[in-house]
Amino acid sequence: MYRHHHDTACRRLVAAFILPIMILLLVPNTGLGSVAGEVRRGNKAYRQGRYDEALKAYRDAQLEEPDVASLHFNIGNVHYRQENWPEAQREFELSQSGENLALAARAYYNTGNTLFRQGNLPAAAEAYKSSLKLEPGDVDAKYNLELVLQLIQEQSQQQQQQQDQQQQEDPSQEEQQQKDGQQDQQQEEGQQDQQQQQEENQKQQEQEQEQQEQQEQQEQKGQEQQPQDQEAASSEEKEASQPQPGEMSPQEAARLLNAIREQEEKAQEERRAARVREGRPGDYDW
To answer: What domain count does the chain have?
Structure first.
């Protein structure tokens, strides 16, 4: 069972697995007995799980034949079993360039498995595609390619969901800056409104104080003018009681009227007395 610890989608694919590396314990056709002997010794140790001994035997063979593709392939298998993924990938890539197309196809396949182990799914997919180009009928390579492509799609969906959720929980930097800018603008406007309100209040207080001072001044002025007005009224009364030049006083006018009345009464009495003296016949009988 092959599982990828970096992807939760792999845990859901219980039946899915990537087939183990293709093991071709090849003996280079070099004609050299010492090289062939070292390779056989390495192959035997590999089958028995003695990977350090197998790696030493393959390295000893490379001392005489350093550029043989099959030796790189076998060394890559040892590193793969030891879970030394970068070294295994390097050796499998070195074994892809040989003239043996079947070996190159298997090298691409094992490269795909090594990349999968390292979590590089896109590169693993490309390696499986390269293997299928050389061997289109390889069902194992087809299966692995389909599985990797499915995992890539699920990973992409999960990343998109995480990004959407993160954007909902935590706004982006641009949105945060915009939000901060709006808050700063609102705060600045609030400060301006507060300052304007303070200025208006101060202006209103000054106006009220000025009006109060004017009112106090008017009241004080009214209190100062009131005795003068009373004094002026008394003066006018005095002037009205005193006769002006060419005019008589009320007392003189009253005396004159009394004198005229007395003269009229006296004149009437004299006129009545004259009639009697004239002896004019009256209406009564003596």
So the answer is: 1
